[in-house]
Structure formats: structure tokens, C-alpha cells
Amino acid sequence: MKDMVSRVFSFDMKTGKAPASDAVSLKRPLSALKKIFSDQQAADAILANGDPMVYEFYDLHMPEKEGDLAFGSSIVYPGTVGNEFHMTKGHFHTIIDTAEVYYCLNGYGMMMMESPEGAIEYQEMRPGQAVYVPGRYAHRSINLSHTETLVTFFVFRADAGHDYGTIEERGFRKLVVVEGDGYAVVDNPSWAGA
Ligand SMILES: [Fe+2]
To answer: Is residue 17 part of a domain?
Structure first.
């Protein structure tokens, strides 16, 4: 990999989107994510009528080496599957003790975090707020708004890598569900960890 040269990327603060000349987003429609939601019947009912976009993000193909930083935007569209809000898959970093910062640009959401030992942290995110995700914590963005798109800008160590498999197998220990006009954080009855 060649040494990185300076470059500028643009992101729309409202939508999180970059111009096509800068980057292309990776799209995660419900059909690609169905299993992360606890209510599979609700997911099937939605998919019978279409395939809504749950989230997308920009992977800017930075050099994945120590000393570099990877960054981009994450865009979680409003919606629910059963009583769960739209959310990202969530992941640990492969080099697990590497942190990340998410800066909220638009909307209203939550960063759910958990360590392998079961420590739970969660933080609401509103525009102008930065959430520090400590090293060792798996993290997932959740859109708590029924109408607005949750847009965050993230930065992390470029060689950290992504471990999606552990969360795919176990799930998170906590679910965030609709409760009245707000939300509740509840135990995940299907959590499959040790
Ligand atoms: Fe991450």
C-alpha cells in the first residue's frame, strides 16, 4: 500500500452522504440484517412488502496500517422491526483494545456498548455530541427517532479491523425497544453468550 497523501472528503451533515466522486456507501437493507432483530416474524412481514434500507456507511479505503486513522459516516434510517429500533450490526474490533469516536451530526440515537466480560455502557447521541467508545467494547448505533435519520461521523485506528462474527453469534446482552414515546433498555432473552 502506498503512503497516504492528504485528501479531503465531503459529507452532508444532514444526510451523512458523500458525493459519488468521493466515495460509495455500503448498504445494509433489512434482507441483509434480518437475523440481528429479535422478532423474526415482524422482519418477515416487512420483507413481504419490500426491503427497506436500515443503514449505510462510507468505507473510504484508508490504508489499514498502524498509525493511520480510518473515518467515515454512518447513516441509520428511522424505523422499527417489531419493537426494536433500526440499528447497525455492531462489532468488536479485531485488535480489541482499540477505541473509536462517533460524532453525531444529525438525528437522535444511542451507542450501545458491551465488553466481552459483560460490562454495559450506553450513551444517547444528539447533534454536537461525541461519544467515546473505549477499547474492548463492542458497539452498535441505534436510531431512537421515528422520523429522523441518525448520522454520525466516526474515527478509529485504521488497522483495528472488524469482528462482526462474535456479535452475529451471540447478539448484544441488551436490546433497546420502543416504550411509549421513548425507549427502554431490556435484557436480550436470546443472548447466546457464555
Ligand atoms: Fe468500530
So the answer is: no
Ligand 1 centroid to residue 50 C-alpha, Å: 29
Distance separating alpha carbons of residues 169 and 138, to the nearest angstrom: 13
Question: What is the tally of structural domains in the chain?
Answer: 1
Distance between Cα 91 and ligand 1 center (Å): 6
- What is the C-alpha separation between 40 and 186, in angstroms, rounded? 18
State pLDDT tens for residues 141-191.
999 999 999 999 999 999 999 999 999 999 999 999 999 999 999 999 999
CATH number at residue 164: 2.60.120.10
What residues make up the domain containing 158? 25-187
Residue found under cell 429479535: 38
Q: For residue 49, how far is its CA from the centre of ligand 1 (angstroms)?
A: 32
Q: What global pTM score does this model have?
A: 0.95
